[in-house]
């Protein structure tokens, strides 16, 4: 049953100016756009890193294709994002035009009019390509492409790691009930003993999903005291993000 569960992380269209560094990746998240899942699945997708080796991509080379309706600049942005993984980890993404080698699944970057997202981790019981859907807005932001790639490699959000209560305090009173599952700490995954990372591209911003955006939904815990500070970013993977991938894929 565990291997048959499919988690999706989707990002919604946000109209207006390009996302700036003071905002987090959660600015794009919209769970109304998800595949319909029950509560157990919704909670499961917030875990930090998949433990099962069967849900990590086999080998260290992953093939990918880019949709023919991407612009030249969008293709360039995807390629740059994929290249960064080869530069920072031992996971190599190789672009293909036709079919991948026999027995190999591949990642397909697909154009979407209104959402961005992907399934989390390798899906051993699925057939066909592993799709990453991206709209035009997401395709302008390398950090969003990298964020989705970290998801497909097996990472969830930083603030849901099992030890997070030692590092952050969640203000559920300022979060709509329908989003509570996105803030649950999960104890069925691993952190690979990587220190908690407020700067992770997988971390929500301090006011993520806030009813009142002027008040944080997440506060840092420094020596046991609640402290308001910036969290998350859209510049790209942090050293902690890269380290988790290196450990997951035995680099």
Automatic annotation (TrEMBL):
Q: Name one GO molecular function term.
A: zinc ion binding
List the cysteine pairs that form cystine. 116-138
Q: What is its EC number?
A: 3.4.24.-
Keywords, A to Z, come to:
Disulfide bond, Hydrolase, Metal-binding, Metalloprotease, Protease, Signal, Zinc
Q: What is this protein called?
A: Metalloendopeptidase
Q: Write down the superkingdom of origin.
A: Eukaryota
Query: Catalytic site residues?
Result: 148
Q: InterPro entries per the record? A: Astacin-like_dom, MetalloPept_cat_dom_sf, Peptidase_M12A, Peptidase_Metallo
Q: What does the entry's cofactor note say about binding and number?
A: Binds 1 zinc ion per subunit.
Species for this entry: Drosophila gunungcola (fruit fly)
Query: Which residues hold Zn(2+)?
Result: 147, 151, 157
GO BP term, example: proteolysis
The EC category is hydrolase
Q: Which residues form the signal peptide?
A: 1-22
